[in-house]
Amino acid sequence: MDSITSAASVVAAGLAVGLGAIGPGLGQGNAAQGAVEGIARQPEAEGKIRGTLLLSFAFMESLTIYGLVVALVLLFANPFS
Amino acid sequence: MLPNFAALEVGQHLYWQIGNIRLHGQVFLTSWILLGALLVFISLGTKKMENDPKGLQNLLEFLWDYIRDLARTQIGEKVYRDWMPFIGTLFLFVFVSNWGGALIPWRLIKLPSGELGAPTADINTTIALALLVSLSYFYAGLSNKGWRYFEYYVHPTPIMLPFKILEDFTKPLSLSFRLFGNILADELVVGVLVFLVPLILPIPVMFLGLFTSAIQALIFATLAAYYIGEAVEEHH
User: Fold this and answer.
1) Residue B17 CA from chain centroid, whole number
2) With CB atoms counted within 10 Å of each terminal CB, which end of chain B scores lower, N or C?
3) Is B120 in contact with B127 (CB distance < 8 Å)?
4) Cβ–Cβ gap B185/A66 under 8 Å
5) Phi, psi for residue B232 in degrees, rounded to 5
6) pLDDT by residue (tens digit) across A19-56?
7) Which residues are CB-contacts of B124 (< 8 A; sequence separation ≥ 6)?
8) What are residue B21's DSSP bridge partners?
9) What is the DSSP code (8-state) at residue B149?
10) Taking CB atoms and an 8 Å cutoff, what residues of chain B touch A62?
11) Which HAMAP family does this UniProt record tie to the protein (chain A)?
12) Is A65–B216 a contact, with Cβ atoms under 8 angstroms apart?
């Protein structure tokens, strides 16, 4: 791999995870806020709310994970090298 | 020096050459071991069944209840029984491979190249599982509704047709990438931390990894059930 390609790959890998973490971060914050408000309003529904919250967290997290997959491909299985 | 429990060997595999096909041997080894363990575990638990369950049988009945509830809420009362074995198999296999990859110190066994680990940390395993899910929701839709299944593609309006067709491709893609990325990310984070601070500090991260692995198995099974439920659902 020439040095330009490897430098660009490393920068792109960093950007893929970094930018990809912004949206899900905001979304998880919103979801947690909603869950906390829901629990405060109706403490007996805590179990159900927690289950749904964890499931939706995992969905949001998977968006960042897609970025991570792209980063891993660039770092370990680079198609341009 | 402490033995190295995790290392960063992402692109390296133990290759088996069979004809023209190159197989990733370490994935086969670990998944055979874990499947064997699962089989032994379940046949021990169901060998002497009693009316009021104890020990292993109790645990297995709890699992059965859990999987049945999952399938029933996603697929619906009418056909969930047909799909419960499939959903249960997916859930147990993914769960056992995630936890087996994290809990068993595979690193102590030296391989000529690559390392043993969770079978689901290899993209081929997860893509195979995701394609199985795709095939089964097509089969579920076609066998339950016949050609009327394709009404689903134009259901609210025909404008949705291209998006629904695209969805058939993005479903397996996201299903496989989600599982693969999460499990590989867990292994990588633990690997990096062990590399930086070999003592104590990686332990909370390992627990977090176990937690996310269990959630990912649940999500994989839930989504598979949801796709099947979407395919067999009747529109009015």
Assistant:
1) 26
2) C
3) no
4) no
5) -95, -5
6) 999 999 999 999 999 999 999 999 999 888 888 888 78
7) B24, B27
8) B18
9) G
10) 174, 177-178, 181-182
11) ATP_synth_c_bact
12) no
Give residue-wise pLDDT tens across range B105-123. Answer: 887 787 777 778 888 988 8
Q: Is residue B3 part of a domain?
A: no
CA quadruple B124, B122, B129, B231: dihedral, nearest 10: -100
Contact present, B221 and B129 (Cβ < 8 Å):
no
Q: What are phi and psi of A77, to 5 degrees?
A: -135, 55
Q: Read off the pTM.
A: 0.84
Domains in chain A and their CATH numbers? 1-75 (1.20.20.10)
By the CB < 8 Å criterion, does A63 face chain B? no
Please name the residue ranges forming H helices in chain A. Answer: 3-41, 46-76
Structural domain containing residue B47:
16-232
Interface ipTM: 0.71
Pairwise CA distance, residues B231 & B143, whole Å: 10
Using 50, 70 and 90 to split pLDDT, how confident is the model at B11?
A: low
pLDDT tens profile B169-206? 988 988 998 899 889 888 888 888 888 888 888 889 88
CA B48 – CA A16 distance, rounded (Å): 53
